[in-house]
Amino acid sequence: MPLSATDLQAAIPRIFAPWITAMGFEVLDCGPGGQVRLRLPVKPEYVHVGGVMCGQAAMAAADTAMVLAMMAELGEFRPMTTVQLNTSFLRPVSADHCIVQARVLRSGKSLAFGSIDLLNPDGRLAVQASTTYALL
C-alpha cells in the first residue's frame, strides 16, 4: 500500500536522529515512483555569517528527503545507508524557508540512486544533489 505524506511525516521522529527531527521538515506531498516534496524552515541556527543557509544544513535536508523518497518508493522503511552524496550549490538560500524535492531515479536490489533539488520560495534552484544508497 502506498505511503501518504502523513505517513512520511509521522516516520520522521521514529527514523531520524533528534537533530534532524528538530529541523522542522513538513512533508508537503509524495507521489508514485519515489517522489517527495518537503518544506524546510531556514532557522537562524542554519544561517552562517554571510546571511544564507549553510551547506551542511542543505546536505542534511537532501539526505533526509531522499530517505523519505525511498520510503515512498518501497512502501515502507528499509535500513539503508548513504554511499555517495554529491552536492552542487548554485545560488544561496536566503529566505525563511526552502522547498526540498527528491525523487528516486532507480531502485535495485542493493543500490538506489536519487536526485534532490532545494528551491528558494520563488522556485529558483539553489542546490542540486545526487545520491547513491545501499539497501541493507
Automatic annotation (TrEMBL):
Entry's Gene Ontology molecular function annotations: fatty acyl-CoA hydrolase activity
Highest taxon, organism lineage: Bacteria
Pfam families for this protein: 4HBT
InterPro entries listed in its UniProt record: ACOT13, HotDog_dom_sf, PAAI_dom, Thioestr_dom
SUPFAM superfamilies in alphabetical order: Thioesterase/thiol ester dehydrase-isomerase
Domain Thioesterase: 51-126
UniProt KW keywords: Hydrolase
Similarity annotation: Belongs to the thioesterase PaaI family.
Name the record gives this protein: Uncharacterized protein (TIGR00369 family)
